[in-house]
Amino acid sequence: MADLTVVVITKNEEKNIRKCIESFRGIAKRFVVVDSGSTDETKSICDSINKELKDIGSSLDFYFHEFTSHANQLNWAFSNTSIDTEWTMRIDADEELMESLADEIQEKLCKIEPSINGIVVRRRTIFMGRWIKHGGRYPEYLLRIFRTGKASCEMKIMDEHIVLSEGGIVTFKHDLIDNNQKSLDWWTAKHNWYSNKEVMDHQMSLSGQSFVEAGGSSNQAKIKRIVKDGGYYKLPMFFRAHLYYIYRYYFKLGFLDGPEGRIFHFLQAYWYRFLVDAKLFECKKNNIEIKEQRDLQA
Asked: Is the pLDDT of residue 209 over 90?
């Protein structure tokens, strides 16, 4: 068993939480679930899982913390749940480990050199049951495992990442899977909520208020942020969403992902980006400042 605590942020995750925890296949010493007020069976499922984990010498501790942002939830978890393992991992409730990644963590984590404090993993997205392999979506490189106390989540409203305070980074070979079991209706509601957060983040960036913590993260995450803030948002409003979709679907071969890919790339690369621009346009026209978003009500 790896000397690892896994932190999961939840809100109404009854369809995802069990497969997330079970994907670790007993390799983690402890799970910390920080919930912001689920009204479904999330807590009762976690209670049941905790009883099962105790049989193998692991545990799951369930906490409530009022949601203000994903970054706040994660940093509260890192600081207030008595994590005493050598390593901490962040995972979303709709994510899971491939068996090969669970094996890699079990085998390699205890052998990491002392100078290395962070581990980047690869993520693949499953949408409507299909692996979205094209369109620039795979692989995503994310810093998700770190020596306890050596990292935090940057206080950013959107696209927040784990960043190291010191030390080096290595990349594992195998994949984490984003495989949400919720409906397309929920997916669009979530992205509508995300669009408000992105507008707020962009407004704060323009006014010089946006805060990004310095530190080590994945190079891919850094490059994406530079491209978005320094390139994408410099393009003409509305046209940029159209251009981004063409780039993703045709130039990055998103059409090879079949009908599921067609839906995903259109909604994620065009509809969502166009929606953000529409809200930015509305805010500028009517002098609206987007207020802080609470947790997703869906």
From this structure: no
Instruction: Report how far residue 77's alpha carbon sits from residue 151's, in angstroms, rounded to the nearest whole number.
Output: 12
Q: Do 200 and 290 touch, CB atoms closer than 8 A?
A: yes
Per DSSP, what are the bridge partners of residue 32?
7, 61
Q: What's the mean pLDDT in 138-147? A: 97
Q: What is the pLDDT of residues 279-288, one digit of tens each?
A: 999 999 999 9
Cα–Cα dist 156/70, whole Å:
9
**Residue 216 per-residue DSSP state:** B
| 87: nearest Cα among 29, 163, 133 | 29
The answer to whether 186 and 93 have CB atoms below 8 angstroms apart is no
Cα 138 to Cα 1: distance, rounded to the nearest angstrom: 29
In the prediction, which pLDDT does 202 show?
85
- pLDDT above 60: residue 49: yes
Cα 126 to Cα 9, 132, 134, 259, distances in angstroms? 20, 6, 12, 13
Q: Could you tell me the end-to-end alpha-carbon distance of the chain, in angstroms, rounded to an integer?
A: 36
Collapsed DSSP state (helix, strand, coil) of residue 97: strand
How many C-beta atoms surround the C-beta of residue 43 within 10 A? 18
Q: Beta strands 87-92 and 2-10: pairing type?
A: parallel
Segments in the chain forming alpha helices (H): 17-22, 42-54, 70-80, 99-108, 184-206, 219-230, 239-246, 258-265, 272-286
The values of phi and psi at residue 8, to 5°, are: -125, 130
pLDDT of residue 167: 96
The model's pLDDT over 232-248, given as tens digits with 9 standing for 90+, comes to: 888 999 999 999 999 99
DSSP 33-76: EEES---SSHHHHHHHHHHHHHTTT-EEEEEE---S-HHHHHHH
pTM reported for the whole predicted model: 0.91
